[in-house]
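Lab notebook, bench 4. Still working through the backlog of constructs that have no structural model yet. Next entry is a single chain of 298 residues. Request: give me the structure tokens for it.
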Amino acid sequence: MFIVKYKKIFLSISVILVLSSLVSLFVFGFQIGIDFKGGALTEVVYQNNRPLQSDLDNAFKTLDLGSVLIQPTGELGYIVKSIDLNEAQHSLLLKTLSEDGKSPLEEKDFNSIGPSVGRELTRKAIIAIILVSIAIILFIAFAFRKVSKPVSSWKYGLMAIVSLLHDVIIPIGLFTYLSHFYGAEVDTLFVVAILTILGLSVSDTIVIFDRIRENLKDKIETNFSDTVGRSLDQSYMRSVFTSVTVIIVLLSLFFFGPESTKYFALMLTAGMFFGTYSSIFLASPLLVLIEELQSKNK
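Model written out:
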């Protein structure tokens, strides 16, 4: 019940976090990765054992080759994305990958890549987000059609979308800090992380909304705010425990995984944390606030 009682405090925290993230976005912006601005793609296969990715990442940090993204392929290969390379830089790249000849390799492919793939992915991601948002509103409005009082069923869907925006904007704001201070770059993994956060977050919100729907049908409380409070008491621990288990796995990936997926894991960790927060402390209290405003206007 305390969540509903102190709803204005929790809503204020969300507003502050969202505004801070938007300010960070406009002040710092992003560093655009190779996937979006184009560059060179090199594929190599080692004759014996391939070097550790972390060793290669550290080696490239000492060179003047800009951002270099290394991705394992197969059992003995790497795909390397970099800036456009001249002949000397290309030779330096291969020399570094072979650890000065200690790890013999064969270059399987080398060509330039354009930013069109990244732009196409971004366009499709935006379209997907818009279509998914409309589908969520329609689905929730249909599923909640029998409990449309005192809050209209479509408003449940609208609050779910508000929560989704909250869950995406804050991790994006965090990424702008990483981009500005640590050189993190926006790549296709960034887009995948955003879409994954959307999917994880909305499921948590719908679970709590479904509990509210069942309690409204059973009329366990006399007023709407008490029903929402009771529903949160019955379901918030489930959301917390589920999120904690996922966050533990993501933190393991962040600390022990390859360098190329660290920011991806961090984005998902932030998305899971704030997604759980919004499901409990934002979406449901917003429903109560809407109901209170409706009552005052009658």
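Notes after review: The first helix runs from residue 2 to 5. The chain has two domains: 2-33+117-297, 39-113. Flag for follow-up if needed.
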